[in-house]
Amino acid sequence: MTPLLYAALKNNTDLAEFLITHGANVNKHGETNKIALHYAIQRGNLKLAELLISNGSRIHLKDEKNRTLLHKASEIGNSKLVGLLLEHDPDINAREYERKTALHLATLPRCIDAAKLLISHGIKLDARDLFMKTALHYAVDNDNKDLVETLISHGANINAIDGYGETALNYVAKSNNFDIAQYLVSQGANVNMRAENKCTALHDAALNGSTKIAILLIEHGANINVTDYDDQTALHYTAYNRKNELMNYLIEHGADVNARDVKGRTYLDIMITN
């Protein structure tokens, strides 16, 4: 490890500046192929990053996971570093080893400013990773309502499906985040889309015991008697977790109490045996 790499690793900006003024090579890499700028980004050191870039540090670099410096800055949620890198024309839509863009990695609530900066610079909103997930899927998974709203308001596909055919609405029905569910429905999310296993968001809400979300979906047109790949309805699903409030609501609103699944069972049969 060179002295400059060590200074960057130890977050010592003064030493790094001294070494650079005395001819240290800012692009010299160590055994892990990281240069000093990698460590500056990793440490969130804006001053050091500016110093290195102004002295000719390369920014179009990828690590062993194919991640760029922009990926790293976005993942730690450092909007100032993201802004600095964007000033120097990085490949904003670069993919890492799981085909994630910087936006995929900036979906935690603490990364909201970085995410908004990426969006304002035109990053692809509906890029899909190796699992066919968009940033919207991850934003919902991370309960990041601010980012969900930002993505939708900038034109992200609200009904984008992942590798299992699930939309953001499926995700939120499982996570029981009513506020995000309400927002997605208000923005036109399709309440009757079926995933690969033929489940709708209503199935997911019923299985998860998300009563408020299930009611919200039904109030906005969800098919109460739609069946999954085992011919089970949402009413069957409530029988597994004995969510009586939701069970009664479904029955009162037209759920077929005589519906049978592929094994010939009604919801009552499942309640008895479960």
Automatic annotation (TrEMBL):
Q: Where are the ANK repeats?
A: 1-31, 32-64, 65-97, 98-130, 131-163, 164-196, 197-229, 230-262
Please tell me whether the keyword Repeat is annotated for this protein: yes
Q: Which UniProt keywords apply?
A: ANK repeat, Repeat
Q: Which InterPro entries match?
A: Ankyrin_rpt, Ankyrin_rpt-contain_sf
Put simply, this protein is called: Ankyrin repeat protein, putative
Q: What organism is listed for this UniProt entry? A: Trichomonas vaginalis (strain ATCC PRA-98 / G3)
